[in-house]
Amino acid sequence: MGYTIAEKLISSHLVEGKMIKGEEIGLKIDQTLTQDATGTMAYLQLEAMNIDRVKTELSVAYIDHNTLQNGFMNADDHKFIQTVAKKRGLRFSRPGNGICHQVHLERFGIPGKTLLGSDSHTPTGGGIGMLAMGAGGMDVAVAMGGGAYYITMPKIVNVKLSGRLHSWVSAKDVILKVLEIMSVKGGVGKIIEYSGEGVKSLSVPERATITNMGAELGATTSIFPSDEITRQFLKSQGREHDWTEIKADSDAIYDETIEIDLSSLKPLAAAPHMPDKVKEVKDYGKISIDQVCIGSCTNSSLYDMMKVAYILKGKKVAPNVSLTISPGSKQVLSMLSENGALFDMIDAGARILECACGPCIGMGQSPKSKGISLRTFNRNFEGRSGTADAGIYLVSPETAAVSAIAGVLTDPTEVLGNQPEFKLPEKFLINDNMIELPATAEDAKNIEIYYGPNIKPAPIGKKLENNIRKKVMLKTGDNITTDHIMPAGAKVLPFRSNVPKISTFCFTGVDPDFPENCKKYGGGFIVGGSNYGQGSSREHAALAPLYLGIRAVITKSFARMHKANLINSGILPLNFKDESDYDKIDKFDELELTGIRDAVENDGKIILKNITKGEEYELIGNFSERDRKILLDGGKLNFISEAKK
After folding, report:
1. What is residue 134's three-state secondary structure?
2. Strand order through the sheet with 278-280
């Protein structure tokens, strides 16, 4: 039996376990990336591990999230990351150089390599045939220190593409169609692997758009073959030597197959407030819009920007619309400036933002109250834009551009003629002057790491006690996102290196009294529905509850990365054996886990007592042997410390 692409890459990096679906495996990590919203904590954890120099083939620290410097905090964090990178052997991508995933695809990604990033959209690298996965900062710190990355061996889903996209239908519409089919939790425990003749019609930027939003499926990662198109892209970046062909064996076996005819797709849009609420653009009607934002790690490539510039050329943005455009990298912005496309954007009335995540992470450009915003981003979670009652639609760059001109949501195929052929340049503009190289090991000894006053130590969990009796601090519904748990945005992000401060924002969009109740009662339990913790890799969604005294989160099901982050923080992630028991628990019920340490240590039965109601419920841990040891020690930092003794 042959191997899929994913199985080939896993087998070549396997350091522990066997490729048996559902069993834990350990993978060697070749490359890592961090960004500044998660990077500060990751490097604080790296420092706590006493690692002199990173042991990966390549590690890059990017500054692309917290670029709005409305106080000293973000600038201090950037200086901290810069000095750690210089001292510990990482490359440092300065603010203004671009969004981590776009830059990494352009300058560093290598087919066949493993990439672990402290950002959920790290699977963008799958567009050039990498096994690229998002994880919490603690896992990335361990990988930088030479440790393996542990996951449950996923199932492999084959998305078989046929045909070609019609004019003004794009890769964004492909991944929105996959989301419509699979849902935001349909990819949990799975790798999405693309194949078929349709793949040959997609450029690397288009493939990267599709793998980027695999994160919204809850998938472990997504991946395309590395073929002649990949080779040409790397050649145009001056990196043809990094190319290798990677394809699935002809007799590879997949766990599931989804077939999509690209020629059947129409422009699609995801309605508020979830990426899988997908319909054809024309089915929404002519919705009046207030804002259009083009960019993000999903749709900020030169390929996307050239199409936007073509549509805007000679036109004028509607008077009721604010249009912002964020090129994905300095390379993209420089080439737009050089070829005149930037003029066409500015001339039409677009507001050009810096090469950063910006509005996607809630860093500026919040819509008006109850405003309607079309965005080429990957997430439209409630409140993520910075405006709680705004309606955010996810669309392609083509739909965004024509709608900005029309002033209403518009299907580009209805107003534009035949699409001209947009070709990637044979040679991109190469200038890596915004990427700093690390010091030599000898020179690094004289570098002092900068710690600003806002930088506080990472909170550390305590050893798991045998009996936990606490109240329910919060009960949530299904599909709670990390944005619900730990909001982003310009007010919150500057405190990413200060968990005591950032914890005051924890869950405040769901329950404004949550932080104060945790302080009043000394922490407690959280009860949640299905797919709890979906969204980003931000471990602050675990670290803040840890700081507030949350000892266990009990749900119907978890998103992969958040469950791992809870374990790494020493918080018990538990599932109801009978999901109907969820309905029997209320906020402020007093619950008790008796003998929980013994149960975790020996994989025994876990019983939750509801003292308030006089009931008992059976829970499930679903822990690997390694997970159990981490939980018993009170988190991964303690586990590593114990292992060194």
Report:
1. strand
2. 278-280, 268-270, 391-394, 372-375, 291-294, 322-325, 351-352
- Would you state the structure tokens that stand for residue 642, as one six-digit string? 């114990």
Give the global pTM: 0.95
Is-contact 533 595, C-beta < 8 A?
A: no
For helices 36-48 and 72-88, the axis angle rounded to 10 degrees is 50
Among residues 143, 122, 115, 123, which one has the least CA distance to residue 42? 143
End-to-end CA distance of the chain: 44
DSSP 3: -
Q: Which two tokens stand for residue 200?
A: 């040959």
Q: Distance of CA 361 to CAs 23, 67, 140, 204, Å?
A: 34, 11, 21, 24
Contact 548, 519 (CB under 8 A): yes
Q: How far apart are CA 551 and CA 569, in angstroms?
A: 10
How far apart are alpha carbons 145 and 257 in whole angstroms? 37
Cα 534 off chain centre by: 10
Beta strands in 395-513 (DSSP E): 435-436, 467-475
Question: Given pLDDT bands bounded at 50, 70 and 90, which one contains residue 150?
Answer: very high
Secondary structure, 3-state, 357-380: CHHHHCCCCCCCCCCEEEECCCCC
Q: Work out the burial of residue 67: count CB atoms within 10 Å of its CB; fewer than 13 is exposed, 13-18 middle, 19 or more buried.
A: buried
Distances (CA, A) of 488 to 215, 382, 485: 18, 12, 10
DSSP tag of 597:
H
- Quick one: tokens of 389? 């009652």
Per-residue pLDDT reduced to its tens digit, 56-89: 999 999 999 988 888 899 999 999 999 999 999 9
Q: Select from 200, 198, 225, 201 the least CA-distant residue to 211.
A: 225
ω into 273 cis (within 30 of 0): yes
In this structure, are residues 9 and 114 in contact, taking their beta carbons and an 8 Å threshold?
yes
Give every CB contact of residue 34 below 8 A, 6+ residues apart in sequence. 42, 43, 60, 61, 62, 81, 100, 117, 118, 119, 137, 140
Does an H or E element contain 82, and which? helix 72-88
Summarised one tens digit per residue, pLDDT across range 381-436 is 888 888 889 999 999 999 999 999 999 999 999 999 999 999 899 999 999 999 99
Cβ-contact 375, 268 below 8 angstroms: no
Q: For 156-192, what is each residue's pLDDT tens digit?
A: 999 999 999 999 999 999 999 999 999 999 999 999 9
Q: Please answer whether residues 179 and 213 qualify as being in contact, where contact means their C-beta atoms are separated by less than 8 angstroms.
A: yes
| Residue 615: burial class (beta carbons within 10 Å; 0-12, 13-18, 19+) | middle
Is the pLDDT at 645 greater than 70? The verdict is no
- Measure the CA–CA gap between 172 and 163, rounded to whole angstroms: 16
Distance CA 573, CA 631 (A): 10
Q: DSSP 3-state assignment of 207?
A: helix
Strands (E), 178-255: 190-195, 221-223
Give the DSSP letter string of 381-429. Answer: -TTTTS-TT-EEEE--HHHHHHHHHHSB---HHHH--SPPP----SS--
Give yes or no for a contact between 458 and 499, defined as CB atoms under 8 angstroms apart.
yes
